[in-house]
Amino acid sequence: MPFLSHDHTGVFYHTSSLLDTPGLLHGFSTRLGGVSRGVYDSLNLRSGGDAPDAPELVRENYRRFCAALGADPEKLVLSRQVHEDTVRLVTAADAGKGFSSPADYTADALVSNEPGLNLVVFSADCIILLFWDPESGSVGAVHAGWRGTALDLPAKTVRKMGRLFGAKPEHIRVAIGAGIGPCCFETKDDVPDAMRAAFGSGADAYLSPRGEKWTLDLKALNAWRLREAGVAEEHIDICPLCTACHPELYWSHRKMGGQRGLQCALIGLAGRART
Prior knowledge:
Blueprint: E1 3-8, E2 11-16, E3 24-29, H1 55-69, E4 76-78, E5 87-89, E6 109-112, E7 118-123, E8 127-133, E9 138-144, H2 146-150, H3 153-165, E10 173-176, E11 186-187, H4 190-199, E12 207-210, E13 213-216, H5 218-228, E14 236-238, H6 253-256, E15 263-269
Parallel strand pairs: 4-7, 5-6, 10-14
Antiparallel strand pairs: 1-2, 2-3, 3-15, 6-9, 7-15, 8-9, 8-10, 11-13, 12-13
């Protein structure tokens, strides 16, 4: 299933045709269409850091992105990412956390079955994934860098959706957004060692030597782990774009370091989304 690109009054973003259904809001932002300036030019969704962007500009960026998707910014629930494997159940009491009120949790994955809430995760090279089960009417948003991948966080999210909502893996759809590709993700032995420790020799299919270093296909490895968790291959959609290859579209920690913005992925139920 292809990823689609959209331009809503200058806000450029992607959606997955796999998640294109009435009652389901979703989108993957780019860096285009906002009001931030300098190293945060322009649709920056990050307000923290050593030299933070102006909060009023970040809020306007959120307003613009939410308007493009038809989402209510006051019903945002933002992840608080720490590269661990917590999957947090989001309820109506969490509306606004991380956006209009502090997030009193840490979590790299959010899941919910409550209409009206908009789950958000962030990336500047890491893999971001959106989950939807049309049978149980549940959704999820996951941030998986190489540490989250080694912790099998996307597959754990599938299992958590099953325990909480009765979601069956074969019904779950997953869209994997733009992230750093094997073309640019060059690493020393610590990352391949972590993958092999987690997944055994199966990880070798996604690792390639490059001189004294290695490259890793994080998107493909996560897709494999999702299939191993029971998600059907035809229910996994992968954006082919590499964030490090396209600095005109995305922020990349590998290319830009810490002085840069963040893009996000958002998913929410406007109503009970069912096929």
